[in-house]
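Lab notebook, page 48
Experiment: co-folding of the full assembly
Goal: obtain a model of how the components sit together before planning crosslinking
Operator: M.T.
Materials (sequences as entered):
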Amino acid sequence: MAKLRGRGYAAVNYPTGMNLGGDPTQALVHSTTTGNFVVSLSSVDLGQGLKTVAAQVAAETLGLPYENIIVDTADTDTGPHCMGTFASRGTHRVGNAVIMAAQEAREAMLAAAAEELEVDAEDLETDGTGFIKLKGSEEVKIHVVDLAMAAHFKLGRTIAGRGIFLKERSYPDPETGKMDPDSAQAHACTVADVEVDDETGVIEVLALHNVYEVGRAINPRMAKQQIEGGAWMGISHALYEATDPYYPQRDHGPRDFEEYLMPGPADNAKMESDIIEFPAANGPYGAKGIGEMTANAPIPAIANAVFDACGVRLIEMPFTPESVLRGLDELRASA
Amino acid sequence: MSEGNGANGNSTFDVIGKPVQRLDSLGHVTGRTQFFEDVNPAGMLHLKMHRSERHHANLVSVDTSEAEKVKGVVQILTHEDVPKNWYTVLTLINVGYPEELVLAEKKVLWYGEPIVAVVATSERAAREGAAAVKVEYEDLEPIFDVEEAIKADAYPLKPHGTNYFEYEGHHCRRVRLGDVEKGFAEADHIFEFKYQSKPIEQAPTETTGCIVEPRHDGRLKIYSNTQAAFFTLDNTALILDVPFGKLQVVGGTVGGGFGGKVDVTVEPITCIAAMKTGKPVKYVYDRYEEMQISSPRAAERIYIKDGVMNDGTIVARQVTLYADAGAYSRHSPYATTKAAAHMPGPYNIPNVHIDSWCVYTNRTPSSAMRGFGVTIGDFALETTMDRIARALDLDPLQLRLKNAYRDGDMKAHHKVAEGTALIEVIQKAAEQVGHELPDEYRAMSSKEAR
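Observation: model returned without errors.
Model output:
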């Protein structure tokens, strides 16, 4: 009886955006008299950080500090239309809509500043700390809080912008399947190290080494959370989860977390995750999105590592101890 | 198409690429984040469902008289109370036709299908009321296996008379490139494999639910944890047969979605209950419902046949994929097309033949989940790559690099590939784990035409 170690590989791609397109998202950006800018959306943050991405994109485009951005979202009375948070579309669609809205708001902000400072708008720049200033000058400048007040009470100007992103709907050719399903493809390669107990059939995932290419990581820490949270989900899919454990039969369906098992902290793998960047031409600041893909590569990487460890080829998910033991029995019988 | 943005074209950014703290994280970890269940309007009622206890059956009778007597029960809803009882969420994007029922009428197609909604002054009374509904069934033979379901003599579950979704007159979504039979004839090796997965639950911490509040102006305010506010609004309005403008959806904080909260299964019936009673109504799945009633990830069965040369070059790939949609379409016909487009994986293969089937069975309807239409396909594809490498005694990463798609390649669905980087992630992963690659493989680039 032994614990057998093995390594397995998998490389994958993943499409950005609702399949076949036709999934618009709008954004509105306006300044209040506080100098804060409100990004109005109806998009939903699932906990992955969409609001943070929207705020970062707005701050970058406006040329203002991140702290000046307020994201107001997910009320259909106050936010413009968004198709929803699914299909790895949030960062790409919302990001692009926010950039478009923030660019228009930035132009309005610079035009108001130009009037207030009595200079040409083209000669103005933002310094990222809240000032709009004359290029090459340290004296001729105005803070966004003062500008917002002046625009409203003195100049009678609004500082606002509208944005939308729509990829036109593609209709597949019924015969050949010719279609334009996606806006970008992100990529990943995962290397799994496992240990298989040939007495119990239990698979332990020792390590997952991940490399992702997602265009650009708007927020590298959140991207890494997605990679490693998704890798955990991949381990869970690979080794634990099924609502119909005797599929195709329907009996013995788990009813709660006592019966539907997932990896606990001690079952998680050591993770190593790198992101490489190849900005996408149509992505917000080059981002493709990373939402869904992160559970995918770990599953076959684990299956392939189990084969490397003990010679059992797993072709049914999940990879239960029983399936490993049955595989080992078959190997011994045919040896 | 709107142009995407590299914005000002700067290579240096002030905020992009910076690991700023997530806007909602402090609220989450200090327990101050407001979820939809934190709304607690005065006089709120609770809705619970009486569900099918058969996989496949005709409804002989539905008797709600005992349920009406349960103390605290104020409203009982059957299919007759639902203005547009037949629906399919994807009709909003012109996919499919109304084929699912908010509440069952003459038959049930899965164990757990909703039949009668009971509204009461407490959750306990609603539960007791739902349990007191008596249904008499005439059992029908259930179909659980996708390949059994598509046999010519199988009992047709769907109004259109087949147990598969029809794609413009075809049995399945097809993708065709080159001549797969010619490719197989030329190949040095033929590999044939079969893969199978089981349904998987999204398993969010927060279960699916909503609270609907009738407003003084006659509109309904829907507090929901939906992943798609307007998609939910639009589908709900269609079922209620009211103008879209009569509804407001408020949400935006979701305790885990993973695709499990895009089906619009709780909002419509809760709106009807709120309209009938004039009171706020709450309907939230318990953990059992989240596990066994809400849509899981589809089970998939995938057959792959590959034609491969001695050096590992894949010259033909045929994939037949069956996605088990369960009893109703929900988002499955969408994902089956997405699955077809994803095949044959990130590889440049000149001859490809894909049949991607959306099959109906007597099982909990499956629907969206993270990696929808792709996750199980990747398991099959990348396990296949490993098996080919083993069979031909090739390095597993070199086999992938040799076949990896590059910018300018024609994909199987006749779109020219761009922004490819499979080669680069493999090279980087090899470096990360100290897997040595020969110079010619280290020098490969996605940007260079082969």
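Interpretation: Helices of chain A lie at 50-62, 90-117, 144-155, 220-239, 298-310, 321-334.
Next step: discuss with group before ordering constructs.
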